[in-house]
Hints:
7-stranded mixed β-sheet; 48% helix; elongated
Amino acid sequence: MTMKNYNDIKASEALRMAQFIATAPFIFQAVVAMKKLGILKTLAELNNGEYLTKEQLVQKCGLPYYSVSVLVDLALSSDILIMNSNQQLCLSKIGYYLATDTMTNVNMDFSHYTCYNSLFHLTESLQTGKPEGLKVFTDSVDTIYPYLKTLPSAAKKSWFNFDHYYSNLVFDQILELLFKERKYRHICDIGGNTGKFALAATSFDPDVSVTIADLPEQCEQAMQNIGNKAGRINFHPINILDSSQKLPENNSVDLWWMSQFLDCFSIEQIEQILKKIHATMTPESTVVITEFFGDKQKNDIASLVIDATSLYFTALANGYSRFYHSDDLIEVCVKSGFKVDKEIDALGLGHSVLILSRQ
């Protein structure tokens, strides 16, 4: 929200933004088409000061003139391309980021391949509290998590690329901070997903062992990904919301780790999970939560991405969770019997870390 006082902007600027939002699906799909058809790549490969005409793009991309023309005209109107006085084209700064920036492309692929069709059912999801958009892929499950490994290939790839891009970069940074304070021996990674953190932890410290506690389907996926590197990594299949299923009751667990996990649950479910950990852990062990908090970001762009992709949870993942703001999560931690010993913000691409102990 760069404009803090929206009454300060001109009516023409407000109307332009309103029309941009109204036509956003057309612009988004046009950019996706320009990526798939090689138009953005061709323009990104130009040297500084070089331009191409529509006709040259037709030749280089092997496309009909109509296809190039209709995409280029919209890209010009939406400031993705620039045309000089000789009717020649190049990328604008916006177009350059769309063509080359890794974060932008990870977000765009996630939006396009995983979320786009499901978001059509957003209103319905907000009314029912169910991931109505999941029926785009399947009617066989109530949440996306057991179905992740069987998503269509493009949707699955973009989901895992999105998840790994935002999580993997921060693992070593957080491990260094944690092990600087204390030598941990046994980590229980709740919601271990594909095992990326378990691998990072066992690589970081030669003595630490990790138990991944996750859904049976996710444990199986992690086992396949880890393969013969699983010497100090064990698996504990569990539906953590099932009161009859227990977490590893092992006094050697001195670090309970949850990375981008609690955003998969409602506040009521988070309280249930935290109380389950509280009842299992020893008084000396530590709980670490890493999440993206929309209110703890360095800039408005990061907050926009987080608050926008929260709707993935609404329409597709489960119908009721989100990327929380810090006060909401801290409140439920305290309510569940924990005290926040330390909060560290702005790690990696915008992670926050809560380090908890029992009250």
